[in-house]
Design a protein that fits this description.
About 70% of the residues lie in helices and about 5% in strands. It has about 120 residues and is mainly alpha-helical. It has one domain. The longest helix has 27 residues.
Length: about 120
């Protein structure tokens, strides 16, 4: 019997009952930590862009891709929070004088920055 293209390329099969199933594995990739932004983007891809998600997963590039998105999003978030706080005059002096006002303003700034990051990087 002539070898299949899969066998010619070094692939092997395992017999399960009457069937020969190919021995397929996902390529190993370096595991980098994926925090909240990368997890959100992964969930979004899984639900809305299944083909892209599966292509990244089966090619072994998903972890690196999500790690990069995570880093970009975190950097953007921190930069936006600093810029917005500076523009709105939210300083350490305000924090010392009126902590509740400072917390309220910082929460508003963080929420606004989170919306921007979600719109520009995560849910794209």
């Amino acid at each position: 019997m002539e070898k299949s293209l899969f066998e010619q390329m070094g692939g092997t099969y395992t017999q399960v009952g009457d069937y020969l199933l190919p021995n397929l594995t996902i390529p190993e990739e370096e595991q980098k930590p994926i925090v909240i932004w990368g997890q959100r983007h992964a969930r979004y891809l899984k639900q809305n862009h299944k083909v892209l998600y599966m292509n990244l997963l089966t090619s072994g590039k998903l972890n690196n891709y999500l790690s990069d998105i995570d880093k970009q999003a975190e950097d953007m978030f921190i930069r936006l929070v600093k810029e917005m706080a500076k523009k709105q005059g939210v300083t350490e002096r305000l924090k010392a004088a009126d902590q509740m006002a400072w917390v309220g303003k910082m929460n508003t700034i963080r929420n606004a920055a989170m919306e921007v990051v979600n719109k520009k990087l995560i849910f794209v």
